[in-house]
Amino acid sequence: MKTRFRIALFVLATITYATPSFALPGKPGFVGSLWGDDQLWSSKATAIIPAPTENNLQSYDMLFVIVNSNAEGGQLPVAEAAPGNPDFNSGRWFVQTAWWTDAGLAAYGTVPVITSYSQLLEEYALGNVDFAPGSPEGGPPPYFQCPLLPVKG
Fold it and tell me: What's the CA gap between 24 and 18, in Å, rounded?
């Protein structure tokens, strides 16, 4: 019983401190937490989940945490897909660390806010952005579940 309680506390602490842009389980904040398909979404972290296997990798969406954006107003994470997109997998996330390359920073000066996976891929094709699997230090857990909710107000 004590072991389960300690595990629950660890999971809660991890969600609390490792996912600053996500609401804790409970009442969602309905404020913008991430971009998906050019729309701002709210989120509510519900669980850290196991890493995907080759049998279920297709059931995860990638969530890109851009670590060096100098975009005016800041850069929120970018989802591979969002509700309404046929490729959306209901909020099972595989975190990717993304960054603007030296070429991208030089091309723009102040980089644009990326609001969709397609925009991220365009910048990647131009050599302006790169990314790798895994969460950045201080970012969300590498694999977690959270639904995307409409932003209110």
Answer: 11
What lies within 8 Å, CB to CB, of 151 at 6+ separation is 30, 31, 32, 40, 41, 42
* Residues 82-132: tens digit of each pLDDT: 999 999 999 999 999 999 999 999 999 999 999 999 999 999 999 999 999
Q: pTM (2 decimals)?
A: 0.80
Domain chopping of the chain, boundaries: 2-150
Backbone angle region of 26, left / alpha / beta, with phi > 0 → left and psi within -120 to 50 → alpha? left
pLDDT at 53: 95
* Residues, the chain: 153
> Residues 6 or more apart from 32 whose CB is under 8 A from it?
40, 41, 42, 76, 151
| Among the listed residues 9, 11, 21, the one whose alpha carbon sits nearest the alpha carbon of residue 136 | 21
